[in-house]
Amino acid sequence: MTDKPIKGGVATWACLPGFPPAVIFPFTPGERFGVRSLYEFQMLMYRPLYWLGRDGAPEIDWDLSVGEEPVWDETGRTCTVRIKPWKWSNGETVCADNVIFWMNMLKVKGPRFGAYSEGYFPDNLVSFGKVDDDKVSFTFDKAYSKNWVLLNQLTMITPMPKAWDRTADGPADATHDIEQAEAVYEFLMAENGDVVEEDNSHRTRWADSPVWSVVNGPWRLKSYTEEGVVTFVPNEHYSGPNPPHLDELRQVSTTSDEQQYELLQSGDVQVGFLPPGMGVQPDGDPTKGGPNPLGEGFQLEPQILFNINFMAVNFSNPTVAGNMIRQPYVRQALQSCFDQEYGAREVYQGYGWSQTGSIPVLPKSDLVSPKIAERGGFWPFDLEKARQLLADNGWDVSASPAVCVRPGTGPGEAGEGIPAGTELSFSLRYWEGRPSLARLMAQFRDDAAKAGIEIRLEEVMGSVLVAEDGPGEKRMWQLSCWGGGWVYNYPTGENLFQSGAACNFSNWRDAKADELIAKTVTTDSLEALYEYQEYIADQAPVIFMPTFPRRLFEVAGNLRGFSPINPYGLINPENWYYVEEGS
Fold first, then answer.
1. Taking a C-beta distance cutoff of 8 angstroms, is the pair 289, 553 a contact?
2. pLDDT tens column, 88-108
3. What gap in Å lies between CA 293 and CA 279, rounded to an integer?
4. Which helix (H) or strand (E) segment is 6 a member of?
5. Do residues 348 and 436 make contact, with C-beta atoms less than 8 angstroms apart?
6. Distance CA 524, CA 34 (A)
7. Cα–Cα distance, 61 to 55 (Å, whole number)
8. Which residues have C-beta within 8 Å of that of residue 107, sequence separation ≥ 6?
9. What's residue 582's pLDDT?
10. Is residue 19 predicted with pLDDT exceeding 90?
């Protein structure tokens, strides 16, 4: 007997604590550039040029992409993309002009876009332009890896409708006159509202906005309440594949893992997650769901993403703390104090794994350097090694926190800007409302203290944390952990570790890293990727942390179409539908 599909119904999704959708304009700045605003909110309404993830595999889904597969010329420098004639909800056809509008915005305001990296897209273009009403071309300054161009460059583009090409004074033409892009950007950001402000009052205006109500995806925004309840309804003008089955999709804000779990238990949400630490994976395989505390009424689905987890360390801090962070041996000692195996085994109870460097360990691939894999990272957990690093570089580790006793910049001395008598102490701000993360941070604090490093913990609301502790010059934070890291398309380092990159969260600048990153984007050679990641692992510009499923999804037993899980974090609630169980 098979389940009978039901047309319609409402599905409610519980958001991660502290992370309501914060930006609707799909030109998201670095301080808000994350899965929550992009993949679980914006892309339901505004389809990108290319859709990442197909049937659970890390590849492009050509059916769900607005653009067709790029066609390259014989030089390997110019590609042409045909745009499918999908419709915007106001009747306009998605076209080449919509891509050029985006590109002009990116050309002018690139540093304010979260995926921008100086020297790369669009800086590495000789030209771009409209070939026909449904075709655009891109000519690069040299031949790059075609795989990298597709996955890391062209996926940045979200076509924007003509209806958005305006200012407060009326219609504009940034599509054809790049000089107008600045004013149009300022207008659209004003329509979005303050990207840092946490009050939802400006977000309540999004649903009725003549700007944001023009969509080409399967969903449109019906409402966004002061309380943070987001309601989507099907876009009746959607012309792409897979129109929605549901009548409504609701996303509700939560303040803690405990509250979210209570909503699941009460049946008030149909899609939520099991708080980390509540589920046990007895076989040690984090890709498979173990026993479900919610019983047979829910399906347990680990969300394994192509990602790494880390905490940022602030190279731009102008105080003595920043001077200490800029010393490689200090960062190496911090990494040596992080017991990732404890986190994976005890805190995440089998739903975790050690992250050894800048390339995701899972899903398994040949992209991870064998040298890193064999060593378990360049700086695995080793408190004695951490103490030795500090003692060898001018610190008295007989007490905790350690004290600088050999200032200076010579061999065996502490480094520039670290006076004698300085205590080795850092503040660490982390995402509140996550008991598992608090436990992990407490363990890190206790272990670091044994090596002579004082860690002062402070809980901060997640969305406030990422807004205040993002990339930027002379910010005062020292160590910052939002409990996650970065989901890659293709794991080159220009987004995270390139000097000046919009999402270079640690504000790290390193000429050798830039050189190695540049090699990875011009060749598909694994050796280039290995050399880059080995340098990153050694220098520790971030502190790598145990990685785990982004969520242990709990999905109502009668809700279908949720899996397979997208490895990049995108969601397709248009595929979800209810069934009459046992029919």
1. no
2. 999 999 999 999 999 999 999
3. 7
4. strand 4-6
5. yes
6. 27
7. 8
8. 122, 178, 181
9. 57
10. no
Structure tokens at 489: 């398309």
pTM of the predicted model, to two decimals?
Answer: 0.80
Rounded Cα gap, residues 7 and 527, in angstroms: 51
Name the phi and psi angles at 539, rounded to 5.
-80, -25
How many other CB atoms sit within 10 Å of the CB of residue 57? Answer: 12
| Per-residue model confidence as pLDDT tens digits over 168-180 | 999 999 999 999 9
Q: Are 524 and 151 in contact (CB under 8 A)?
A: no
Between helices 328-336 and 435-451, what is the axis angle to 10°?
A: 120
Q: What share of the chain is helix, strand, coil (3-state, %, to 5)?
A: 30, 20, 50
Contact 537, 289 (CB under 8 A): no
- Apex CA 554: angle with CA 549 and CA 556, to 5°? 155
Q: How far is CA 72 from CA 127, 137, 146, in A?
A: 15, 10, 9
Can you tell me whether residue 370 is helix, strand or coil?
helix
Beta strand 125-132 with 71-72 is unpaired
Continuous segment of H or E residues that includes residue 563: none
Q: In whole numbers, what is the pLDDT of the chain averaged over residues?
A: 93
Strands 135-140 and 166-167 come out as: unpaired
User: Where does residue 507 fall: left (phi above 0), alpha (psi -120 to 50 degrees), or beta otherwise?
Assistant: left
Give yes or no for a contact between 298 and 14, defined as CB atoms under 8 angstroms apart.
no
CA distance 121 to 542: 24
The listed range with the strongest mean pLDDT (73-87, 281-295, 455-469) is 73-87
The pair phi, psi for residue 401, each rounded to 5°, is: -75, 155
DSSP 103-126: HHHHHHHGGGSTT--TTSTTTTEE
- Residues 99, 66 contacting (CB under 8 angstroms): no
pLDDT band at 17 (very low <50, low <70, confident <90, very high): confident
Residue 218 backbone phi and psi in degrees, to 5 = -75, -10
Backbone φ and ψ for 553, nearest 5 degrees, come out as -60, 140
Helices and strands in the chain: count of H runs, count of E runs: 15, 26
The amino acid occupying position 565 is: I
Report the distance separating Cα 217 and Cα 547, nearest Å: 32
| Dist CA 443 CA 72 (whole Å) | 52
Give DSSP secondary structure letters for 198-257: --STTGGGSTT-TTTT---SSEEEEEE-TT--EEEEE-TT--SSS---SSEEEEE--SSH
Q: Is 295 exposed, middle or buried (0-12, 13-18, 19+ CB in 10 A)?
A: exposed
Residue 328 structure tokens: 């490689």
Report the first-to-last Cα separation within the chain, whole angstroms: 7
Higher pLDDT, 1 or 318: 318
Cβ–Cβ under 8 Å, residues 137 and 129: yes
* β-bridge partners, 577: 560
Beta bridge partners of 318: none
Report the distance separating Cα 390 and Cα 205, nearest Å.
54
What is the per-residue pLDDT for 2? 60
Residues in the chain: 583
